[in-house]
Design a protein that fits this description.
- The chain contains 2 helices and 9 strands.
- The chain starts with 31 loop residues before the first strand and ends in a 9-residue tail after the last strand.
- The chain folds into 2 domains: 94 residues, Alpha-Beta Plaits, CATH 3.30.70.140; 54 residues, Roll (SH3 type barrels), CATH 2.30.30.20.
- The N terminus is likely disordered.
- A 5-stranded antiparallel sheet has the order 2-3-1-4-5, with no helix packed on it. It has a 4-stranded antiparallel sheet with strand order 6-7-8-9, covered by helices on one side.
- A hairpin with a 4-residue loop joins strand 7 and strand 8.
- The chain is 10% helix and 30% strand.
- The structure holds zinc ion (ZN).
- Zinc ion binds next to loops.
Length: 174
Amino acid sequence: MTEDKTCGQDNYGRSKKLGDKNDLRIKAIENGTVIDHIKPGQALNVLQILGVNDNFTNTVSIVMNAGGERGDKDVIKIEGRELTEKEVETISLLSPKATVNIIRDFDVVAKRKVSQPESICGVVRCVNPNCITNSNEPIETRFTVSENEKMKVLEIRCIFCESVMTKELFKYIL
Ligand SMILES: [Zn+2]
């Protein structure tokens, strides 16, 4: 991954003002990432994973509940940003069918489905308040990831306390 130099930030994280011409339209992005086929309703949680908050100054477009023959999905376009492997893994927890498209010079140079990792480290905190990872010990959380056949959902299991988590994982993202 190369550092993008057109991200519009100076060393203090301040943005350059966009011209009025760029307002009121969602256009193709020049360099960045399009995350497609996000599970409907998960776009805002994905933005949280990517650290998009008040301080984020690059252009971000969000389409929620985009229609289409194959059903609803959310889509995020994010200018001047490529995703780390950890971010892709975390997105897979919320939206296993999402695809990540890397855009350079308006072209899709890489397209991949998020893949379900076998384990995740330091991404989610444990639901169990008594877990050692929730103590003051400097221990990184670690969960094994699998499919819960009965519930048809993703299941993560803490390797320290065996707590199993399936629902609303986004609430536990670190
Ligand atoms: Zn635990």
